[in-house]
UniProtKB/TrEMBL annotation, chain A:
Record InterPro entries: Bact_solute-bd_prot1, SBP
Keywords on record: Signal
Native organism: Paenibacillus herberti
Domain of life: Bacteria
Signal peptide: 1-19
UniProt name for this protein: ABC transporter substrate-binding protein
One of the Pfam families matching this protein, by short name: SBP_bac_8
From TrEMBL, chain B:
Organism of provenance: Paenibacillus herberti
InterPro entries attached to this UniProt entry: ABC_transporter_permease, MetI-like, MetI-like_sf
Domain ABC transmembrane type-1: 68-283
Pfam families with a match to the protein in the record: BPD_transp_1
Major location category of this protein: membrane
Listed name of the protein: Lactose ABC transporter permease
TrEMBL record, chain C:
Compartments it resides in: Cell membrane
Domain ABC transmembrane type-1, residue spans: 66-255
Membrane topology of the entry: Multi-pass membrane protein
Biological processes per GO annotation: transmembrane transport
SUPFAM superfamilies named among the record's database cross-references: MetI-like
Family designation: Belongs to the binding-protein-dependent transport system permease family.
A GO CC term attached to the entry: plasma membrane
Source species taxonomy: Bacteria, Bacillati, Bacillota, Bacilli, Bacillales
Pfam families found in the cross-reference section: BPD_transp_1 (PF00528)
Name of the protein in question: Lactose ABC transporter permease
Transmembrane segments: 7-29, 65-90, 102-122, 134-152, 189-209, 234-255
Stored PROSITE patterns: ABC_TM1
Keywords, ordered alphabetically: Cell membrane, Membrane, Transmembrane, Transmembrane helix, Transport
KW Cell division (keyword) present: no
């Protein structure tokens, strides 16, 4: 009797364990993990990839797979999609615990994270230096992937920036398209005040919790939050001083609509509350969501900072594909990426047509897909313009501590906006940053 | 008699052994590993022994200080607010002749069945600048300009306090309600005859009789608040500035957002353990007395 | 005067109820609206419901995620109830100083933020070969100090004469537990089941780390990945949230009566 009851109890506990062991075996054979024992080079192998937007970058892999499968029948790819932060967290947990079993073969990395990962987990990521002809990509994108003269990964989408604007609002305020071409930020603010006065619409959105605007401004002057040798770049950096001056000027001018998150940001221009959106090229899809605004939008180069070396072009976001050095399907994964995303004009044409994604692969720029005009943007050949600007984007090193630096800045930003002495604030930020990265 | 006691003692160990081993395995073993980690420094998977360096760094770390300050602020404002609200609601729901009790009880308890992920999305969209709350407040004329809830340091904290209170008040209320139903109604009747007002009865009968359960919920809530994480990450991501960042979020940032330094993250975690332990001890001292 | 008091109480409780239920109303309404309408704060039913459902089914593997969540929550809840009640029974009925001390130590396990033990835990599960299995999602919280405490509290009001009577009938301790204690404590089990089920069902951080492949994902992971895409569709997300919330609501309504009874015991 006694035995039976305790057996029952133990049984329930162990049953779940056993069931689990059973299913763990099936995962291994199905290739959910990369430590499969199947021999490399055989026709049947499944490459696993992690991505964070099933429709966009996951969709890009679908295209690449289709192209690759033409010459490689039997090539199999499993795409696991999760939120971007979730992906980063899983990756860190796996790498930090030295567990390779749970990692994929291919993974998508946000460009500012590249140096951090390569430096924190040496020997973990496969080197693509001689596998891809990097001279065919925009230099700023290759710079982001290069650590100690080695290139880790295949460049994927870019976020070359533009100033999207509502031509109807701008006209209503008495300006012409030419008035917005290659202006400075100070001019932008002047125009913004007129727009606000004449149309009642805000000129731009602002979210102090999000560093995208300051990042765009810094890169347009070839600068960044940290120096290439990972020191804080807040003190004695004219680009930083000018960036924060402009940022505060925009806030003070009352021309910015406050938004607190992504959905509100997209909502603000989809519902016609703002006259301009300064953002990466991938925002085209977001802007086109509002079908009733077709023909009212245009895009101009972003305004520039009033300092030496600043240009009317920058970059926001973008990501690259990495392959894990220890992955069982490393060769297959690298070959797959190198021949498609790393060297196929057809891939980039389809990526643009089907997903609205822009890469940095220069040979594709002259294709028909990139020169098409868009009725939504009043007949403008927007991608021709964007690719033209992408060649002007200053190359910078994103370094290891971008996030720490951004958070240090974020800490002081409210004081700066309240009119604190900028030099003193910058010194505070620099100090805080140094404390964070010891 | 004595042998019977020993026998019963042994029998008891049979029941507690397996569950205890599981807790040791899945909680204490990783905790000890974390302790070792807190004496190491480095990034990613490159580490070296660094002695007390992490602990020294902790005391001079302004971000940590900010996070502790924020977390304590939530603790001091939110926990008493929520517990008091829960008590009042339970007290009303315990009035014998009150109508619609079942409905109220269910409605007020429901928030705690929602998942964190879901409720963060819901609250974020409700408190958006163009969100449904601002829309309503504008339409009834209570405000004339939309309130930028999540970007103002004060309002952002208010929203977080409201969110946690929304989710957990009903949960605590159920504990109180159950306890109140155990109080003999004759105690109240006697008090009423003596002319004690309802308010008086609440403070001099209900609250003292509920002391153990109030203590219990206070310790559980303190523990929960000191580990506060999801709400803040999902609603404000610590902003504006770092004015809403909590200690748990700082640990998370150190491990997964910044260049990973798991050693220092473990050190910060032990700061939470110490704080929880000290506060639990104080609460037991202040609220326990009996037993 | 007395009338006024009752009126005020009703007013207060109705206000609190409205605040409590408002987000539920918001998600039900949001589910029928387009993404743009949700963002604009439209608070009335729309016509996008079937559209949103279709998109959700197309974008995610909802059925699989639902099944995974169910499996983890059900097996996890059953195992947790058995193990925690065993411990609660043992600690309270056969109370000794040694066991009290042990329990005091076990309570310490509640004080550590989960993020801090995640990496050692992950390493452990990898060594055990359990990553990416439902067992990985279930095991770490299969007994918690909180649940043991909950059962201990309830056991205080358990009529011990029943045990004595059982012993006279020749039942041994394990049968006493299974045949006398468990049936008598039904309401406690119901209350514990609701709390445990909710925890398993809504757990996010650990399943995210421990489950690797697409076909092992649970519902909260699906909601999270939906809401962080470059162009999140809030109408679709609202449907996903409703699907995620419904089962916990259902369980609560089914066990509500026993739940309240069970909570009653926990505070004696």
């Amino acid at each position: 009797m006694k035995k039976r009851v305790s057996l029952l109890l133990l049984g329930t506990v162990t049953a779940s364990l056993l069931a689990a062991c059973g299913s763990s075996e099936t995962t291994n054979t199905s290739g959910g993990t990369s430590n499969t024992t199947e021999p490399v080079g055989e026709a049947k192998q499944k490459v696993v990839a992690w991505a964070w937007d099933r429709a966009f970058n996951g969709g890009a892999l679908d295209i690449a797979k289709e192209l690759y499968a033409k010459d490689h029948p039997g090539f199999e790819l499993e795409i696991v999609d999760m939120a971007k932060v979730d992906l980063e967290q899983k990756l860190n947990t796996n790498l930090a615990s030295g567990v390779k079993g749970g990692l994929p073969d291919i993974l998508l990395v946000n460009d500012p994270n590249i140096q951090k990962y390569v430096a924190s987990y040496p020997g973990t990521f496969a080197e693509f230096t001689n596998k891809v002809d990097f001279s065919k990509f925009s230099p700023f994108k290759v710079d982001a992937l290069t650590v100690d003269n080695k290139v880790y990964g295949v460049p994927f989408d870019i976020g070359v920036t533009g100033m999207f604007y509502r031509s109807d609002y701008i006209e209503q305020a008495g300006f012409k398209a030419a008035d917005l071409e290659n202006i400075t930020w100070d001019r932008f603010i002047e125009i913004g005040k007129v727009v606000k006065e004449k149309t009642g619409k805000y000129m731009i959105t602002m979210n102090p919790n999000d560093e995208s605007l300051t990042s765009i401004l810094l890169q347009s002057a070839g600068s960044w939050y940290i120096t290439p040798d990972n020191k804080g770049n807040f003190v004695d950096n004219p680009a930083m001083t000018e960036t924060l001056r402009v940022y505060k000027a925009i806030a003070d001018a009352g021309i910015a609509k406050p938004v607190t998150g992504w959905s509100e940001y997209v909502g603000s221009f989809n519902s016609g509350d703002v006259a301009t959106v300064v953002s990466g090229v991938w925002q085209v899809t977001g802007i086109m969501e509002a079908k009733d605004q077709s023909g009212k939008w245009k895009v101009a180069p972003i305004p520039k900072l009033n300092i030496d070396g600043a240009v009317n072009a920058s970059n926001e976001g973008g990501s690259s594909w990495f392959v894990l050095e220890g992955s069982a399907n490393k060769e297959a994964a690298m070959d797959f990426l190198a021949t498609t995303i790393g060297g196929s004009s057809e891939f980039y044409e389809r990526f643009l047509k089907e997903k609205g994604g822009v890469g940095s692969y220069i040979p594709a720029f002259s294709s028909e897909a990139y020169s098409q005009t868009s009725d939504f943007f009043g007949g403008q050949a927007i991608y021709t313009d964007f690719t033209k600007w992408s060649k002007e984007v200053p190359g910078i090193s994103l370094g290891m501590y971008t996030q720490e630096a951004k958070d240090s800045l974020k800490n002081e930003l409210p004081n700066i906006l309240n009119g604190a002495d900028l030099a003193k604030s910058l010194a505070n930020i620099q100090k805080l940053f140094e404390q964070q990265v010891q | 008699m004595n042998s019977k006691l020993t026998r019963s003692n042994l029998m008891g160990w049979q029941f507690v052994l397996l569950p205890s081993i599981i807790i040791v395995l899945f909680s204490f073993y990783p905790m000890i590993q974390s302790l070792f980690l807190s004496f190491q420094s480095g990034r990613g998977n490159v580490y070296h022994y660094s002695g007390m360096d992490n602990y020294v760094r902790l005391f001079g770390d302004p971000m940590f200080r900010q996070a502790v300050w924020n977390t304590l602020l939530y603790l001091v404002v939110q926990v008493p607010l929520m517990l008091f609200l829960g008590l009042i609601i339970a007290y009303f729901l315990n009035i014998p002749k009150l109508k619609f009790k079942g409905f109220y009880r269910t409605a007020i308890f429901l928030p705690c069945v929602t998942s964190l992920v879901s409720y963060a999305v819901l609250f974020k969209s409700i408190f958006a600048v163009d969100g449904v709350l601002n829309g309503m407040l504008l339409s009834i004329g209570l405000i004339h300009e939309p309130v930028v809830w999540l970007m103002d340091p004060v309002w952002a904290r208010v929203v977080i306090v409201v969110a946690i209170t929304w989710r957990w008040t009903g949960y605590n209320m159920i504990f109180y309600l159950s306890a109140m139903q155990n109080i003999d109604s004759s105690v109240y009747e006697a008090a009423s005859i003596d002319g004690a007002s309802k308010m008086r009865q609440f403070f001099s009968i209900t609250v003292p009789m509920l002391r153990p359960i109030i203590l219990f919920t206070a310790i559980i809530s303190t523990n929960g608040t000191l580990q506060l994480f999801d709400e803040v990450v999902n609603l404000t991501n610590g902003g504006p500035g770092n004015s809403t960042m909590t200690i748990s979020q700082y640990i998370y940032n150190l491990s997964f957002v910044y260049t990973p330094n798991f050693g220092y993250a473990a050190t910060v975690s032990y700061a939470i353990v110490v704080m929880v332990a000290v506060l639990a001890f104080l609460q037991l001292k202040v609220g326990g007395e009996k037993k | 005067m007395k009338k006024f008091g009752t009126g005020a109480i009703h007013f207060f409780l109705i206000t609190v109820s409205i605040v409590s239920l408002f987000p539920f109303a918001w998600m039900l309404i949001g589910m029928t609206n387009s993404s743009a309408e949700v963002i604009k704060g439209k608070f009335s039913f729309g016509a996008e419901f079937s559209n949103n459902v279709a998109k959700l089914l197309e974008m995610t593997n909802l059925g699989t995620a639902f099944w995974n969540s169910t499996l983890i929550a059900v097996v996890g809840t059953i195992a947790t109830l058995i193990l925690s009640s065993m411990a609660g029974f043992g600690f309270e009925i056969y109370r000794t100083r040694g066991k009290d001390r042990l329990f005091g130590v076990l309570m310490l396990s509640m004080m550590m933020p989960f993020a801090a033990i995640m990496i050692p835990l992950f390493r452990m599960f990898s060594k055990m070969g359990l990553l990416d299995t439902p067992a990985a999602a279930i095991l770490p919280s299969i007994t918690t100090a909180f649940m043991i405490f909950f059962f201990m509290q309830n056991t205080k009001s358990f009529p011990r004469e029943l045990l004595q009577a059982g012993r006279v009938d020749g039942l041994n301790e394990w049968s006493l537990f299974a045949r006398v204690y468990m049936p008598t404590m039904k309401p406690t089990y119901a209350a514990a089941a609701i709390i445990t089920f909710m925890n398993y069902w809504n757990n996010f951080l650990w399943p995210l780390i421990a489950l690797q492949s697409q076909d092992k994902k649970t519902l909260p992971l699906v909601v999270s990945s939906l809401s962080s895409s470059y162009s999140p569709d809030y109408g679709v997300i609202m449907v996903a949230i409703v699907v995620t919330t419904l089962p916990t609501l259902l369980i609560f309504f089914l066990l509500q009566k026993q739940f309240v009874q069970g909570m009653l015991g926990s505070v004696k």
